[in-house]
Amino acid sequence: MNRILDRFVASLVRNGNLTITYSDGVRQVYGGGSGKPVHVRFNTAKAERQVIFDPELYLGECYADGSIDIVQGDMYDLLEAVFTGNPGEKFEYRPWMKALGRLRYLFRSFRENNIAARSRKNVQHHYDLTGALYDLFLDSDRQYSCAYFETPETDLEAAQLAKKRHIAAKMVMSRPGLSVLDIGCGWGGMALYLARNLGAKVKGVTLSDEQLAIAKQRAVDAHLDDDLRFDLEDYRHVEEKFDRIVSVGMFEHVGRPHYDTYFKKSADLLKKDGVMLMHTIGRIDVPSTNNPFIEKYIFPGGYIPAMSEVMASIERSGLTITDVEVLRLHYAETLKAWRERFMARREEAKKLYDEKFCRIWEFYLAASESAFRWQGLVIFQFQLAHDQQAVPLTRDYIGDAENCLRQIEKKNGIGQVRFPHEAAE
After folding, report:
1. H helix count then E strand count, the chain
2. CA 5 – CA 10 distance, rounded (Å)
3. Is the model's pLDDT at 112 over the cut of 80?
4. Is the N or C terminus of the chain more exposed, i.e. has fewer CB atoms within 10 Å?
5. In sequence order, which residues have a C-beta less than 8 Å from that of residue 40 and are 6 or more positions away?
6. How confident is the model at residue 122 (pLDDT cuts 50, 70, 90)?
7. What residues form DSSP beta bridges with 279?
8. 180 near 200, Cβ under 8 Å?
9. Would you give the distance in Å from CA 68 to the centre of its chain?
């Protein structure tokens, strides 16, 4: 039994029911044995050494390569046991783990230097996976960002629709025909919503070939191709001016060295009376680094900012912050829904890829949900403008606009546009 790992786990899990079987066959119970049982088995002594040296990277990596198995429960259950096993106490890393974190912090600018060619490569790494994978766990509009749960009973489909409605309300879409730039448009769901329900003329830009092809087809199938244009284009190369700009789940891929560029370019593209809404993951504590496993296997080049890291670049751009909202726990609930859907159809994912891929994605979804529940990640929604009079004086307009949009959605069939393969079925 690895004594250092044993003491580390014992300090973390004082309540609960975690069992670890070490590579030498020794079985140890942590947390007193009450609550939901979780049983982890280390298959090699090397995995034990790796996890105690750098748990942020090697817990997921060793699980992915089979050096660790979860005999009872699942990866989320294990993370829950770790993060809630010592109530009232903050999760504390050992000195060498903190030193690793400081080292990663020093070199983070290099990893986040997302020039145009590197940005495209990073996007392709994740978003050009087969669409059949995303169909396993996303909603029918394939929204791959935080949903908005208006009540505890709201399901994923309704919450993703509510997210689009909430964002559209903040964009102050005061008349039909407004020109909109959707930076990082994904599979086109937000652009389709704005065009169909608000008569917007939308240009969506993405760096993913897979997303581009689907977004274009969806516009044609919805008979909205006159109002929608999707291009394979870096936002830095866009030249037109727009009444509105929206960016949902894209800023996390910009990288800190390019924050000034992002906001200055947005300011240049936004008309003087325009409004911009940016929806991004953020952290509620001080600047830090991303989880190394997520960065290595899921989102290379990404960074989740503290609010303090964003504000200075906004100020230097000349844009005015007209509204900021922090969405707490909404992404935890979104990820819970994704994780449960993925696990229910895990065998289908395995047929698309392999067992290692499934384990990587299990860890990604479980660790991400854990981060939003217990490690201080949230969603920031920044509303920006050149002119502080571009938006109403009070926030009452948001609720009023949402109520109007509900009626429009009802008239238009809930505002959903189905994927081509779904329509064929």
Report:
1. 19, 11
2. 8
3. no
4. C
5. 18, 19, 20, 21, 68, 69, 70, 71, 78
6. low
7. 248, 381
8. yes
9. 26
